[in-house]
UniProtKB/TrEMBL annotation:
This is Cytochrome C. It comes from Microvirga splendida. The keyword Heme applies. The keyword Heme applies. Residues 35-126 form the Cytochrome c domain. Keywords: Heme, Iron, Metal-binding. SUPFAM superfamilies: Cytochrome c.
Length: 126
């Protein structure tokens, strides 16, 4: 309770809300249990996700089919349909059509581990 009050009090200071937001982003990254951002970056490159998306940190990722993933870690929703939460993001990058049947994002066939790594990397984009 005390930490919640400290966070709320900090929102009144200019600049403090950004620090609070960054710590919440860090919390999201840490909640992707077993996810390693660097492994995620390599998996994203290997699966050529940049054919469809603009993805910072991925060489040649200049796609215009899907939305740019710039600042993904700050977004409120995944694909505009579900809250941007770690467990949902892992499911989304594995098999987005199981969540949103009409999405253009394909079932990538990622393993659970691969999906956690990808999610961890996406949360670093802020």
């Amino acid at each position: 309770m005390a930490s919640l009050l400290m966070m709320l009090a900090g929102c009144n200071d200019s600049g403090s809300s950004q620090e609070v937001g960054q710590s919440l982003d860090d919390l999201k990254v840490s909640r992707v249990v077993g996810g390693e951002p660097e492994m995620g970056r390599r998996i994203i490159a290997a699966y050529e996700c940049g054919v469809c998306h603009v993805i910072p940190g991925i060489q040649g990722a200049h796609g215009i089919v899907g939305p740019p993933l710039t600042d993904f870690g700050r977004r409120q929703f995944i694909g505009g349909v579900v809250p941007n939460e770690p467990s949902l993001l892992v499911r989304w990058v594995q098999d987005a059509p199981s969540i949103a049947p009409h999405t253009g994002m394909p079932d990538l066939g990622l393993s659970n581990d691969e999906a956690r790594h990808v999610a961890a990397y996406l949360y670093t984009l802020r």
